[in-house]
Sequence to fold (477 residues):
Amino acid sequence: MYKFPMYIGGQPVDKEDKIDVIYPYTNEKIGEVPKGNPEDVEKAIQKAKIGLQKLKKLTAYEKYQILMKAAEILKNKREEVAKAIVYEVGKTIREARTEVDRAVNTITFSAEEAKRIGGEYIPVDASPNGVGKKGFYFREPAGIAACITPFNFPLNLTAHKIAPAIAAGCPFVLKPSERTPISPTMLCEIFLEAGVPEEAVSIIPGFADVGQAMTTHPDVRVVSFTGSLKVGEIIARQAGLKKIVMELGSNSAVVVDEGANLQLAAKKAVIGGFAIAGQVCISVQRILVHENVADKFEKLLKEEVSKLKFGDPMKEDTDVGPIIAVDEVNRIKSWIQEAVEKGAKVAQGGEVCEECETLFKPTVVMDVPEESKLFYEEAFAPVVTVKRFKTIDEAIDLVNKTNYGLQVGVFTNNIKTAWKFIENTEVGGVIINDIPTFRADHMPYGGIKGSGIGREGPKFAIEDYTEIKTVIFDLNA
Fold:
């Protein structure tokens, strides 16, 4: 049984009121944490003001050393943290280990960027009124950061928020998903052990009232949120004059051109569609395939899906684990039924496994109508859809026919076709000859339209965690 306190200004706080953590595979309680409230947020923010001043006194090298130590501690606790991720998320043990490894990389990248937060000389005399003047700018911490993370990558997405914050010199108040607070708390404890000033670290598990108190507080200067479009829109309306970074999901498309490597495209699409039971913002959801190769591709796709092993996420050979909760299983079943009623066909899966009510069989749905939720909403489940197209322009229109715009994957051997997608798709990232699920943790990552605002990746996140201060010297004086 995992039992952790919340942390307010680096100090452990326990409460009688608890949030239970449920293992999705067995529906058993595996842990508990205190349930926070707005009063806890207020205390944390007052502590964070002290933490901000302490962080400002640290040199770039000192912040680098602290973050490198945190990365090393996490690396040494790899198996312990990975097992906690399995129990709270339900992802497979292999996927959980990969998440720990990625979090180590994210913290390491943040450590390296802590030494690169600089500025630039300004040629003031390029303006007629700048004669005799010299100028430059530098970056300084924006202030207190409110960070809210989802359930699917509880460790690495937490690292993507709090590690760049510390690199930039910003204290943070973190609200993890109420479903997965264990590994984020472990990470905050690691940061404290590594030497982050205690007042700069707060983690408050809770529900919407905690998130609202964090994002609307006048002393918070940065809001970093990963979650649903619906909640993101609420935060954007309520936050006020703050720097806002949001990653709000997608229904990512893969395009398979007629000259593409079909075997590669099928293998990659299955990896991207069913990793973490499809509960990834850049999970492959919509596969658009040229009609001239559709029959062959669909056969290859179904062959690859049939190879997947689903079941106990703690088994080393399991490929697909459970969905986070039964209500999500019921939702995706209703979406599939809606698509079928409108003309779609279930080619594989579409059923709950007998051994576990949250274990949904890897599913392929053909000919999904554009007006069905499986096409225009985010499925967040082990389901991929297949739709045929005739021309590249039609494929581009289908990619763009959604309120989301995170990433797209395009399999083609035609450079002109690749460039046409690069120029015309409404997304934050175009991945050529790979799936949209690809993400390197130091690259600029984020979307447009309903997929969010701003970019993650330590270098780019630090831009949002800092403010530019301009300095001008008048040498005529």
In short: The domain at 2-249+450-471 is CATH 3.40.605.10 (Aldehyde Dehydrogenase; Chain A, domain 1). DSSP finds 15 helices and 21 strands in the chain. The first helix runs from residue 38 to 57. The chain has two domains: 2-249+450-471, 253-440.
